Amino acid sequence: MADPGVTVAQGLAALMFSWLVVTDVTERRIPNLAIVVLLIIAVMLVPFSGMQVLISLACLFAGLAAFAKGWLGAGDSKLLAVCLYAAQEHWLACLLMTAVFGGGLSLIYLARNRWFPTWQPAHSAACTVPYGVAITLGALSATPLISMPLISTSLISTPLIIFP
The Prepilin type IV endopeptidase peptidase domain covers which part of the protein (predicted)? Predict the structure, then answer.
């Protein structure tokens, strides 16, 4: 039987991921509170690894540099760094799956903008891609933090992970 503390943490993580996806899609922002809660959950459940900290910090600094250029949101950078820490040794699969989901999401938004050029969003940021969704999907597909394996894919050697 699963540890009740882990189950509560997974439920809270599911709530935080849901909240940040909704706010990213509707407002193009990722709440810092959601990121901090996910970081606390990751630190509590994932064994400490200096290498994971270095990978996360490298991702954070690269993401903040991309933010300075206007290529990526700061919340996206922070979220990806936390997800890479939580992914442990599966960080590369997490990054790969984030890129795959991000590419798919970008194609969807590109098609929408091309097929519906007269569509006017409520604010101009709605023409951008909510990359927090792709990061969330990438993390959930490759991160053992929310561990409920369904299938093992042949593309990557990590289980597909979903919410409990």
Answer: 14-105
